[in-house]
Structures are given as C-alpha cells and as structure tokens.
Specification:
The protein contains no helices and nine strands. With about 130 residues, it is mainly beta. A hairpin with an 8-residue loop joins strand 1 and strand 2. It is elongated and about 60 Å long.
C-alpha cells in the first residue's frame, strides 16, 4: 500500500499511501562536503506537496557535515525515523537544504582493496505500524 510517485517536476519524490494508518518513516542520506569547512545540511518531512505549509512540525534535523580533510571529502550519513499518521492517498516527501553548494547527496561507487559495495545516496524505509482508530 506504499508507493513512490512523481512530483510536479517529474522527480520520484512523493511517498503515497493506499491505506490510512500510523507509519514509521526512516531515511538514510549520504552527504558529501568538498569544502574544508564544516557545513550544515537540514532534512525534514512535508505532507501533500503543499509547500512550507505542509512541513510537519518538529521534523527538521540539522546535520554538521565535516569538511574535506587530508585530500578526502567530508562524509556524513544522516539517518532518522519518524512515526506519523497519514490518510488514504496522502503524500509525504523528505526534503533537504544547505546554504552551501559544496554539500550534496552522493552515491559512492563500489571500491576495491578491500572490495566493498556501493554506498547509496539515499535509503527510505516505510513500515506500517497500525490502523487509525475509528
């Protein structure tokens, strides 16, 4: 009963719900920073693609992404979960912002010596918790 739909810009960002209920929304985002300074990035939830009026209260988190050091980009995994209620056909989005273009969300390729898998740019897990009371 959970699917991903395109937003008005045709980006697949809308998490939609076929069944009303309480859901646990979890995300993990791989931030990269190419600047030598620490740069903040923020992530929050929005409901029903309604602009800032749809921003869910108390869902913003601020992450201090480390600066580049010893020739290596700064890296940070931002991860959190929220439990929220949704109605049938409602949509949630996970949004992010930074004031500095040196911070971005990155997929990091698989590597060798030692062999290790690719690091995804973002992971979202949605788990049904319970039906809404009638």
């Amino acid at each position: 009963g959970v699917s991903i739909q395109n937003d008005p810009s045709t980006d697949p960002t809308l998490i939609t719900f076929a069944y009303a209920g309480t859901y646990n929304i979890q995300y993990s985002v791989q931030f990269t920073n190419t600047d030598v300074s620490i740069v903040n990035a923020e992530i929050w939830l929005r409901k029903n693609d309604t602009g800032s009026t749809g921003d869910l209260p108390d869902t913003n988190s601020i992450y201090a992404v480390p600066g580049k050091h010893s020739g290596e980009n700064g890296q940070l995994i931002a991860a959190l979960n929220f439990v929220t209620e949704v109605a049938v056909d409602e949509e949630l989005e996970i949004l992010w912002h930074t004031d500095d273009s040196t911070v971005y969300i990155e997929t990091i390729a698989a590597a060798t010596a030692p062999i290790r898998p690719q690091t995804p740019s973002a992971i979202v897990t949605v788990t049904f918790v319970s039906e809404l009371p009638e």
